Amino acid sequence: MKKILILFLTCFYFLTLNAQIHELSLSYSPLSLYKFEKLVEGTDDSQHNYKVLGAFNIDYYRYMNDWLKLGVSVMYDQASIEGNYSPYYTPYYYTSSPLTQTAYKSTKHAFVVAPQIDFEYLRHSKFKLSSGLSLGYASETLSTQGGINSKVNIDGFTFHLNLISFRWGKKQGLCGSIGAGYKGFCNLGYFVRF
């Protein structure tokens, strides 16, 4: 009986080892929502330094069958702005520059946790194409130091529509996607299947 159980467990171990039903990926998007916000709104003359970190994504998937996988996604992004502002209102007829300016630093942090679903429509042993959707919870912290000190936390729901993504490699390799939402518009990374 012990020999049969050991044989069964050994076979089960090797089957799950070769099945590769789990996937973990780490990716980076330089075109995050904060970067898009910076491009659309632009910078003010009073802003000296406007930096955007970019979106870092960690994705875990579990294959439900050959073409469908479910998982969870975690994303982090950060932006910081440094500059000077006038602490008082200047009427339109007052043409000279303000007498005093106060330095400030403003930072934004975004953190997202979201379940996701992915559908693979092109499956090859070393190359896969898929599309997917994730809906989740987002937490954003906005803080300002200098002049007016403030800290605001914003919570809510967010989404990401993965238009097309690829996986290039059998057990590990390059991954990337193009989509719209919290993960960024274009990201590239590395994945491992186990």
Please, could you describe this protein's structure?
With 194 residues, this protein is mainly beta. The chain has one domain: Porin, CATH 2.40.160. Helices cover 14% and strands 61% of the residues. It is built from two helices and nine strands. An eight-stranded antiparallel barrel has the order 1-3-4-5-6-7-8-9. Strand 3 (55-63) and strand 4 (68-85) form a beta hairpin. The longest helix has 18 residues, at 2-19. The radius of gyration is 24 Å and the shape is elongated. 22% of the residues are buried. The mean pLDDT is 84.
Secondary-structure blueprint:
Blueprint: H1 2-19, E1 22-29, H2 33-41, E2 47-52, E3 55-63, E4 68-85, E5 102-123, E6 127-145, E7 150-168, E8 172-181, E9 186-193
Antiparallel strand pairs: 1-3, 1-9, 2-4, 3-4, 4-5, 5-6, 6-7, 7-8, 8-9
Write out key terms for the chains shown.
14% helix; 194 residues; 61% strand; Porin; mainly beta; eight-stranded antiparallel beta barrel
User: What is the global morphology?
Assistant: elongated
The CATH class: Mainly Beta
Number of distinct beta strands: 9
The Rg value, from CA coordinates, equals: 24 Å
How many domains in all?
A: 1
Distance between the termini: 30 Å
DSSP strand content: over 45%
Element-by-element helix/strand order: HEHEEEEEEEE
Going across the biggest sheet, name each strand in turn: 1-3-4-5-6-7-8-9
The DSSP helix count reads 2
CATH architecture: Beta Barrel
What is the structural class? Answer: mainly beta
Uncertain residue ranges: none
Mean pLDDT: 84
Biggest sheet details: 8 strands, antiparallel, barrel
Helical content band: 10-25%
CATH fold-level assignment: Porin
